[in-house]
Amino acid sequence: MQKLKEAILSRGKALDGGVLLVDAFLNHQVDVQLLREAGERFAAHFSAKPFSRVVTIESSGIVPAAFTALAMGLPLVIFKKQTSRILTGELLQTRVRSFTKGIDYQLTVKRDFIAPGDCLLFIDDFLASGEAAFGAIELARMAGASVDGVGIVIEKSFQPGRARLEQAGLDVLSLARIRSMSAQGIEFAD
Ligand code: 5GP
């Protein structure tokens, strides 16, 4: 997606440790036109499969996932990273390692919001090691459902997430694939 690549080059910043700062357009200040287009791209790619829900992880996945769900006419479920006093009922939980924070969190969803047999489309802002995506896959499994597609806004192809998801047989669409990045510049894989 050309506009996304341009935004990454002009407004993104490669930090140490293989982290790309995108707070100017994706997860702090948000370019909603760009992310609406991202949602439409995911919808066009995945509409041939009978998905029943779009799922994502709070908070940076919510905007692209919401536009995808809107474009596909599907409900959206947000998996939680933080528990709270009002998150009650029967909960499904799995431990996930946060790439950016370097700590573990309990990925959580109410059993009521994923039905057995659901065909889920997982959307997220980044793919790095694949931990978040595999956490979503595990929650789906616990609910008797399955993740059958993965849509990623920015894939860091120099990290192992894509290879792991492909090995698991998943259809992965990434709208921008970064081959390498450093303070000197960012190169795309395609
Ligand atoms: P993974 O679980 O694939 O290792 O990492 C994906 C998750 O970590 C995403 O949900 C995203 O929020 C965060 N993440 C991974 N890499 C980056 C990055 O370079 N920049 C930002 N802003 N978030 C990232």
Structural write-up:
It is built from 5 helices and 10 strands. With 190 residues, it is of the alpha/beta class. Strands 4-3-7-8-9-10 form a 6-stranded mixed beta sheet, sandwiched between helices. β3 (53-57), α3 (62-72) and β4 (76-79) form a beta-alpha-beta unit. The longest helix is centred in the N-terminal third of the chain and has 15 residues, at 32-46. The chain is globular, with a radius of gyration of 16 Å. Guanosine-5'-monophosphate is lined by residues 19-20, 22, 27, 57, 60, 99-100, 124-132, 161.
Brief description of this entry?
With 190 residues, the chain is of the alpha/beta class. 29% of the residues lie in helices and 34% in strands. It has helices at residues 2-11, 32-46, 62-72, 131-142, 161-167, and strands spanning 13-15, 19-21, 53-57, 76-79, 91-97, 104-110, 119-127, 146-156, 172-182, 185-188.
Individual helix count: 5
Give the strand order, joined by hyphens, for the main sheet.
Answer: 4-3-7-8-9-10
H/E element string? Answer: HEEHEHEEEEHEHEE
User: Structural class per helix/strand content?
Assistant: alpha/beta
Low-confidence stretches: none
Report the radius of gyration as a whole number of Å: 16 Å
Q: Specify the helix fraction band.
A: 25-40%
C-alpha geometry: globular
Average pLDDT number: 96
Record field, number of beta strands: 10
N-end to C-end Cα span: 10 Å
Q: Give the names of the bound compounds.
A: guanosine-5'-monophosphate
Percentage of residues in strands? 25-35%
The biggest sheet, with number of strands, parallel, antiparallel or mixed sense and barrel status, is: 6 strands, mixed
